[in-house]
Amino acid sequence: KLLNAPDPVVATVAMGNTGVLGELFPETAAIESLRTLMTVERRFDVACGDRAWRRRWVALFDQESGSVARRMKLSGKDTKSIEALNAAALAAANAFEPIPCNRFLHEFANATDPDCPAVGAVLIASAREGGDRTSGWSDLMERARGWTVRRFPLGGADVQRLGVEDGPRIGTLL
């Protein structure tokens, strides 16, 4: 649970310098990405919380985060969360135009979820890019924090009123 500490970078760097990190995790650990994530977390005023370690895990192990989680025998829930967070971070990196942004938010944002994957994804993606595009990341973070899923205004009964028979075609049309 080192990654849940308010600032795990010092201990992680020490583990890297002594070779402990390399013994435990032969996968390349991106300590600089973790350091940048800590800066980004402070910039966006994101609380440490008891779930912060997952986004820090993703920052530290980058694309290998899911496979490292499985090798370390983390719980299925934690592994799925880490894999989803990594996928969300990849999507966030390309979510600056309106259509990709809306797709990203619709898939990963949920303002009522305290562990909203979109918020963590914006933090990770920003850290992976060294915190560049500050205003773009700020806009995306603001949208992720305030996103509410919109309910599609039509339903099966509406399509049936247009004369379409009950069945799978209704779902296809919707």
The residue-averaged pLDDT reads 86
User: Radius of gyration from the CA trace?
Assistant: 19 Å
Q: Report the principal-axis shape.
A: elongated
User: Approximately how much helix is present in the residues?
Assistant: 55-70%
Derived from helix and strand composition plus strand pairing, the structural class reads: mainly alpha
Order of helices and strands: HHHHHHHHHHH
Q: Which stretches of 5+ consecutive residues score pLDDT under 50?
A: none
Regarding quaternary structure, how should these chains be classified? single chain
Number of strands: 0
For the sheet with most strands, the description reads: none
What does this structure look like?
This protein is an all-alpha fold and 174 residues long. 63% of the residues lie in helices and 0% in strands. The protein is built from eleven helices and no strands. The mean pLDDT is 86.
Highlighted features:
174 residues; mainly alpha; 11 helices
Please sum up the structure shown.
The chain has helices spanning 9-18, 20-24, 31-43, 52-61, 65-71, 76-92, 98-108, 117-128, 134-146, 156-161, 168-173. By secondary structure, the chain is mainly alpha-helical.
Could you outline the blueprint of secondary structure elements for this entry?
Blueprint: H1 9-18, H2 20-24, H3 31-43, H4 52-61, H5 65-71, H6 76-92, H7 98-108, H8 117-128, H9 134-146, H10 156-161, H11 168-173
Helix pairs in contact: 1-3, 3-4, 3-8, 4-6, 4-8, 5-6, 6-8, 8-9
